[in-house]
Amino acid sequence: MTVIDAHTHILTEAMVATIAREVPSCAPKLTRVDEDSAVLEILDVKQNPFPRAAWDLERRFADMAAQRVDVHVVCNIPHTFLYEAEAGAAATVSEIQNEAIGTLCRRYPDRFLGLATAAMQDPAGAAATLERAVTQHGLRGLHLGSNIRGGNLDDPSLDAVWEVANRHRLFVLVHPHKVVAAQRMHSYYLTNLVGNPLETTIAAASLVFGGVIERHPEIRFCLSHAGGFVPFQAGRFRHGWQVRKEPKLRLKGDPAESLSRLLFDSITHAPGPLRFLMEEVGADRIVFGSDYPFDMGTTRGVEEIEAAIGDPAARGAILSRNIQRLLGVTVPA
User: Fold this and answer.
1) What is the DSSP secondary-structure string of 244-267?
2) How many CA atoms lie within 13 A of 167 on its CB side?
3) What is the pLDDT of residues 121-152, one digit of tens each?
4) Which of 188, 230, 237, 287 has its CA 20 to 30 A from that of 255?
5) Is 111 helix (H, G, I), strand (E, B) or coil?
6) Residue 80 in contact with residue 28, Cβ under 8 Å?
7) What pTM did the predictor assign?
8) Measured at the alpha carbon of residue 277, what is the angle toward residues 253 and 324, in degrees to the nearest 5?
């Protein structure tokens, strides 16, 4: 079986250099700390540590071997969504990254599959960027932030992007970004521990109750980090729709139908929650993900799935078959 990690990030030094040359206002700055890490600065974001594996392909290949992973589905790091930047500059940065990721996938076809990024603050431009990413760069889906300049993903202006994604039946990985209530979560790394899953939950609820999934049924929306709080609160979503008028404002049908189309990566960091997720949504709606190479990801994802899931068929679906189906590829065993 070919093991495919559906949630990994990349920002090579070549990408950094090209962005710095073409869009100096959005240039990422890498300051080496030691052999394994650096500090990354881009606009108002500072990531410390920023792992060497994000830019060093040889380190990545070594880690893949150690982690028993054959193929990475690669996408940009969330810091380079740049939804808060000037739209033209952000679009150029997106195009640079999409072209670079497409080139990597062609250079290493047995190691990489790629997802696009787009400057979502300009939906019409983002739709054109996504179309090019699919038809010219050979990318298989979209990496999407959980909010756009603080606006939720049910904004009607985003329909231009959803129409492209629906037409191509794209896999869309929804990733937390610029988390809500950050001012209350400065301590204890709560911006990640609580903020990230909360962001993903708000994004999912917006897609469901905003009717986005209902209107665009061919998009394969996948929620990062096992869906945040969605799997545990899906019953609350359904109950609220039944007893309140507000959730019916834009959603025509039962939210259960839209919820049933959501996909999830496997990042739970514990076997019990992963088993719960599988019992709630089924093995066919879960893909193996690690959030490589960040420290809040997992380096033992394959072992964690093996420990949590006893059924070999379910393990095979999560580790390989599901993402091949969702991306429309066949990877030799």
Assistant:
1) -SGGGTT--S-HHHHHTT-EEE--
2) 11
3) 999 999 999 999 999 999 999 999 999 999 99
4) 287
5) coil
6) yes
7) 0.98
8) 85
